[in-house]
Amino acid sequence: xxxxxxxxxxxxxxxxxxxxxxxxxxxxxxxxxxxxxxxxxxxxxxxxxxxxxxxxxxxxxxxxxxxxxxxxxxxxxxxxxxxxxxxxxxxxxxxxxxxxxxxxxxxxxxxxxxxxxxxxxxxxxxxxxxxxxxxxxxxxxxxxxxxxxxxxxxxxxxxxxxxxxxxxxxxxxxxxxxxxxxxxxxxxxxxxxxxxxxxxxxxxxxxxxxxxxxxxxxxxxxxxxxxxxxxxxxxxxxxxxxxxxxxxxxxxxxxxxxxxxxxxxxxxxxxxxxxxxxxxxxxxxxxxxxxxxxxxxxxxxxx
Length: 303
What we know:
By secondary structure, the protein is of the alpha/beta class.
């Protein structure tokens, strides 16, 4: 990554990445996943040409969308030999019947084995579940034939939930998953502060040493889109910190690419300081093909 040349700021270059760190970064991507929208099933085959077979692809559950909206995309991912993972936002589920019907169809017809369970940031629940703990407390998920559940982690906290409440809820969800015979994992929200991510993953390793962690990265996108999603997702703290660093902020907003964060994570992983991290999770922000291409370039660069 380079800083654009100007009269005030001559061109600067970044030191080449050492081969062992580059390989570790490639492995994190190869063992990772990405996220796409529920309304674009035609993207499934395109990204399947770029990613290893069986790559988990998470399908979002946006506000004012019922769960069934994602089914065509889940089925298309399965047909393309990828691993479909639907989001389920507890507060957006209209009824137990909707959840039961969706899970039954997703498991039987799209081969879904895993879900990402989140609370869903709506002021009022659309149905019987006020948060992810309430949904997971029932046996609908375990009784559907699913074998795994991913849970959200928040390196920068949550914009409307106190940290203590978040931590207690995470412990409760991990416990419920294990009780129901579901293998849990954690997928973190993206952040622009590698040190904050590392600290959070180290904390997870102390609190839940056996739980796999996938670190969220903001995929390659436009500066405007990235800023919009960052503010919406509650990562403004690391945005402010990055902007305070001057030219680092210029680099972010002129070359929006998660490579620097990936390399920082790989460096810590090689040093044994990345805790339970087994891969990265790319947030595509509507540009899933571009994100899959970015992943492909890193995976195929492995020596």
